[in-house]
Every structure is written in structure tokens, then in C-alpha cells.
UniProtKB/TrEMBL annotation:
The keyword Isomerase applies. Pfam families: bact-PGI_C (PF10432), SIS (PF01380). SUPFAM superfamilies: SIS domain. GO terms for biological process: carbohydrate derivative metabolic process; carbohydrate metabolic process. Keywords: Isomerase. It comes from Candidatus Woesebacteria bacterium RIFCSPHIGHO2_02_FULL_39_13. GO terms for molecular function: carbohydrate derivative binding; glucose-6-phosphate isomerase activity; mannose-6-phosphate isomerase activity. Residues 31-173 form the SIS domain. This is SIS domain-containing protein. Belongs to the PGI/PMI family. The keyword Isomerase applies.
């Protein structure tokens, strides 16, 4: 088991290398000019393969020059056509829903860009002569899609920059990587446990249902953290966003009363949220406490949004990792997902 824990810890430490590799490799790629002449972008991916897109979609909400929709299901939106760019992502290259979306995109004459390590999707890239990023995940010793976040996010960010859908500079990537390396020093196992916030949060989450709260540029990252709590720490978790939750969730804290002993709200606040959203965080926490539910508060320290996105990712990944160790369970195996996929092939 210790070897598996080490693989996960080594992978988190390699997030900056994943980001650097994917960013640089796509920046060196030739992308046809026709990929810049588009009306919309559709991203298709499932599970860990879609996490990077979620993170970047949240970060780039008011930066993207082209509409972007993330699809986590079979098929494509009705509006997808020859003026659409469809990005299909599958770490293994064998994701059923993504393969179907790829064929549908080709049928509709959309421009297709694939992100994968190989498998069936890798074969389609070669057979159909598609543009794609077929990468070697040398910095993901865990082998798990959910732990390839640096690759997934770096690939999408680099490609969108390459086609002019967003503007991100080399300096911004370098600054982000520097912040990531700094916070790894704060949260890795070599850090002083008494001062390690990721360890402290994991210990408090044990035996609880973590209810994650985030907003704006961090909502996609916190979705990723929820995914890692589910898959790695085998822990049920839910995610809500401010300000939306202020219009309904607070009234739902009354019942069932027994659940109040299990809930633990974790607020991911940021000094870079819009002013009115920042004001809502302490007020929402006050309502939660008045309903007898405890809470924790996390705030990234970076003064720019992109570094905050990845700083929060590092913290959350370590938090999930330490919770896995608290539970003394295998951080890599996903028996129920594997069982489900096996049964699905029989139908």
C-alpha cells in the first residue's frame, strides 16, 4: 500500500511538470489556420479527462473569445456543424462516450482536435488524419486520469491560446508553475504536520460529508477536488457555488436533522472574486453555523487568477491524498467504476 501512496504523492509533485510538458508540446505543434475560423467550441470528455477543461472554462469565463460548452455525455449539441471545433479528450483513448462523440463530430464535418495517450482515439487520429495531442504521460506515475490534471489543463490552455480563443503568455505559465512548486513545499509530506493545512483539513473531514463551496474562477478546480475525494478517498462529497446557493440551499439545512452531524462545509474563498461574491462568503458561513453545521475556510494567497487555480488544485489534491491515508485505503483502485464498466460491456 505504501508504494501506491508514493505513486500518488509523486504524481501531485509532478503536476508542474505535467503542465509544462503539455503547454510546450502543443505550442510547438502545427495547427491549421482553419481551426481559428470557428463559431463555437465543444469539449467532450468524461471523468478525469474532462477535469482540465472544467478548470480552464471557469478560469476563462470572461476571457474566452469563442463560446465553449463542455459535454459529459454521448453525442453533441444540436448546433454543432462545420463551423464548430470539437475537442475530444480521453486519457486512455477508450472512453465510450468520447469515441461516439468523435464519430458524430466527423459526421457533422466539425473540426476535431483530440487529446489522448493512445487507445481507440489514438487510432482514429491516425486513420482520419486528425489534429491531436497524442502525449506520453511520463509525469503521471499513478497512471490515473484524475491525476493527470496538469496534462489535461495544460493541453486545453495551450491549444486555446494557439488558436487565439484566449491569450495566455509564457510568463504567466512560468509564474503559475513557480507558485505550484512553492505550495507543494507547504503541503507535501516533508512539511511540518502542525502547519500543514491539507493534513489538518483531511483529519477534520474524516467521518464527515464534505460540502464544497466555490465561485467564479475556482469552481472548476473545486469540482476536480470533489472528483478526487470521490475516487481516491472513497468519500461522498457535494459541490455548490456562491451566489447560486444563496437562493435555495440555506433553507435546505434544516432537515434531515441527523445529517447535521455528518456535514462539514468547506468554503474556497478568494480575494480575487468579485466584491459582492466575497461579501457573501462570511455571511453564508454564518448561516451554516447558525444551522448547527461546522465549516472550514480555505483561501489561496496568489494575487492572480491562473496561479490561484493551480494553487488550489495542489491544496485539494493533497487534502484528498491525506484523507485517503486517514482511511487507510487504496488510493488508486476504483473497484465500483471498474465493475460498472465491465457490466456495461455485457449489455
Amino acid at each position: 500500500m505504501e508504494e501506491k501512496y508514493k505513486l500518488v504523492a509523486d504524481t501531485i509533485r509532478a503536476y508542474p511538470l505535467q503542465l509544462k510538458q503539455s503547454w510546450e508540446e502543443i505550442q510547438k505543434m502545427y495547427i491549421p489556420d482553419e481551426y481559428k475560423n470557428i463559431d463555437n467550441i465543444v469539449f467532450c470528455g468524461m471523468g478525469g479527462s474532462a477535469l482540465g477543461a472544467r478548470m480552464l472554462d471557469a478560469y476563462a469565463f470572461n476571457l474566452l473569445r469563442t463560446p465553449l460548452e463542455i459535454v459529459n455525455e454521448y453525442g453533441l449539441p444540436n448546433y454543432t456543424n462545420s463551423k464548430s471545433l470539437v475537442i475530444v479528450s480521453s486519457y486512455s483513448g477508450s472512453t465510450e462516450e468520447t469515441i461516439e462523440a468523435t464519430y458524430e463530430a466527423l459526421k457533422r464535418k466539425a473540426k476535431v482536435f483530440a487529446i489522448t495517450t493512445g487507445g481507440k482515439l489514438g487510432e482514429i487520429i491516425k486513420e482520419e488524419k486528425l489534429s491531436g495531442y497524442l502525449f506520453d504521460p511520463v509525469h503521471n506515475p499513478s497512471g490515473q486520469p484524475r491525476m493527470s490534471i496538469g496534462y489535461a489543463s495544460g493541453a486545453v490552455l495551450s491549444f486555446l491560446t494557439k488558436i487565439g480563443a484566449i491569450s495566455v503568455t509564457e510568463d504567466e505559465i512560468d509564474q503559475t508553475i513557480s507558485v505550484m512548486n512553492n505550495v507543494i513545499g507547504d503541503y507535501n509530506e516533508g512539511a511540518t504536520k502542525e502547519k500543514n493545512l491539507a493534513v489538518s483539513f483531511a483529519q477534520k473531514i474524516k467521518g464527515k460529508i464534505p460540502i464544497l463551496i466555490a465561485s467564479e474562477h475556482l469552481i472548476g478546480t473545486v469540482y476536480t477536488i470533489k472528483n478526487q475525494l470521490n475516487e481516491s478517498a472513497k468519500t461522498f462529497s457535494a459541490l455548490f457555488d456562491i451566489p447560486e446557493l444563496n437562493h435555495h440551499l440555506m433553507e435546505g439545512l434544516r432537515n434531515p436533522v441527523k445529517l447535521k452531524d455528518l456535514f462539514l462545509f468547506i468554503f474556497f474563498n478568494s480575494k480575487l472574486y468579485s466584491e459582492r461574491v466575497q461579501i457573501r462568503y462570511p455571511l453564508t458561513a454564518d448561516v451554516v453555523e447558525k444551522n448547527g453545521v461546522p465549516h472550514l475556510m480555505y483561501s489561496p494567497f496568489s494575487d492572480k487568477k491562473l496561479p490561484q487555480v493551480f494553487e488550489t488544485l495542489i491544496f485539494g489534491s493533497y487534502m484528498a491524498y491525506y484523507l485517503t491515508k486517514e482511511h487507510q485505503i487504496d488510493p488508486l483502485e476504483i473497484p465500483w467504476v471498474d465493475y460498472f464498466k465491465k457490466e456495461l460491456t455485457k449489455v
